[in-house]
Design a protein that fits this description.
The structure holds two protein chains of two kinds. Chain A has helices spanning about 1-20, 25-50, 55-70, 95-100, 100-125, 125-145. Chain A is built from six helices and no strands. Helix content of chain A is about 75%, strand content about 0%. By secondary structure, chain A is mainly alpha-helical. By secondary structure, chain B is mainly α. Chain B contains eight helices and two strands, in the order βαααααααβα. In chain B, strands 1-2 form a two-stranded antiparallel sheet. The chains are: A mainly alpha, B mainly alpha. Chains A and B meet through helix 2 and helix 6 of A and helix 6 of B.
């Protein structure tokens, strides 16, 4: 009896800790922060391919995007965070949580092109960077089209 | 064989029609594919602003059957048409509704697109005038209107097929040649001066929509001031 009570107590604490690791509001905040930070870096690359090309700038931006893409952001899409507010109300569609195959496919496509973006940036060719930025953008769209709410 | 025919659609109206059709297809394809084509999507949108503005002016100063007042249908005319009692030339009352619908939807579409963003790298040329929140709303409208446009395009093509096969009325040929077989008054008006006016207003609209008149964004700080972290 005692051991059962102890077990229940321990599991309650464990469950509590697990939930305390990432609160839904924080999860939504952090994923919005990730996309917001990537937006700056995407814009940086775009400015560089449209104006004077600064290789170092583009490398920094591409590396930042690559790092976020490979950071395992999928962990921030906790069950129940299809609704809620981070910095603003989440714009994820409920389908994101039910159609995991399509989401995984879109996410992997994005990671692949983000990795490629970093490689291309390191080479420093403006035309190739522009081309790759287009491919990368298309993978963003791959998820936005189906899984982002258009207000 | 009756060789009677009359001038229905003037050249500017026909050119407008076919160029618009191509531009809308190009806008749909570039919008769907995204990637670097999104920049072309924006350019095509501006071009369509010019086309629509041209048509709106041409609908006032153009030749007979291109004028909005000529084909603006009254409820009575729509009723008469549905009973098979309408006998006019140019857009029939139902077709006229479809024309006004398409023009209105396409206008709403380019207008919302000017302020839209894709949450990737693209913003419409007038994005800065409204800010992100309103831009998001307008982007949502841009997606909704796109669906309505698909429906009207399908209806437009279905109607042409219906008139061609069931009613034995060739609608495409007059839109290509300008001539329609049968009795009717040839179109008049819409001379060179009207054309210049319509083109000038269209050009001004494209300039306004392009945001070229907006103050230039602040230049980035010089490299020396950028910290190396």
């Amino acid at each position: 009896m005692k051991s059962k009570l102890l077990l229940a107590l321990v599991s309650m604490i464990l469950a509590g800790t697990a939930a305390a690791q990432v609160k839904p509001g924080d999860a939504i905040k952090w994923r919005q922060s990730g996309y917001g930070f990537m937006a700056w870096n995407m814009a940086r690359i775009k400015t560089n391919v449209e104006g004077t090309y600064n290789k170092e700038e583009v490398i920094k931006a591409a590396n930042a995007i690559q790092a976020i893409a490979n950071s395992g952001m999928g962990a921030l899409y906790l069950p129940g965070t299809d609704k809620g507010t981070g910095w603003e109300k989440t714009r994820v569609k409920p389908e994101f949580f039910t159609n995991r195959d399509a989401v995984n496919k879109a996410a992997l496509a994005f990671i692949k092109e983000a990795n490629e973006m970093a490689k291309v940036a390191a080479a420093g060719d403006a035309a190739a960077t522009k081309e790759q930025l287009g491919k990368l953008s298309a993978t963003c769209k791959g998820c936005h089209d189906d899984f982002k709410i258009k207000d | 064989m009756n060789q009677e025919k009359f001038r229905l659609w003037d050249l500017p109206t026909r050119l407008f029609h076919w160029v618009l059709a191509l531009a809308v297809v190009a806008a749909i394809v570039s919008g769907q594919l995204g990637g670097n084509l999104i920049d072309w999507h924006g350019r095509i949108g501006l071009f369509i602003v010019g086309l629509l503005t041209f048509r709106l002016v041409w609908g006032v100063v153009g030749s007979t059957y291109a004028r909005f007042l000529q084909f603006l249908p009254t409820p009575g005319e729509i009723g008469a048409y549905l009973r098979g009692e309408w006998h006019g030339a140019g857009h029939n009352p139902l077709g006229a509704l479809s024309i006004f619908g398409l023009l209105a939807l396409l206008t709403a579409q380019v207008a919302s697109g000017l302020f839209a963003n894709d949450d990737i790298t693209f913003v419409g040329p007038l994005f800065d005038l409204v800010g992100k929140n309103l831009s998001n709303r307008l982007t949502g409208i841009h997606y909704l209107v796109a669906n309505a446009i698909y429906v009207l395009i399908a209806l437009h093509i279905a109607a042409i097929a219906f008139y061609g096969h069931v009613r034995k009325q060739k609608l495409v040929k007059p839109m290509l040649t300008g001539w329609k077989d049968g009795p009717g008054e040839s179109a008049t008006g819409g001379g060179a001066l009207a054309l210049i006016l319509a083109l000038a207003v269209a050009g001004a609209a494209v300039y306004g929509a392009s945001g070229a008149w907006l103050p230039a964004p602040l230049p980035p700080p010089p490299a020396a001031e950028t910290p190396n972290w």
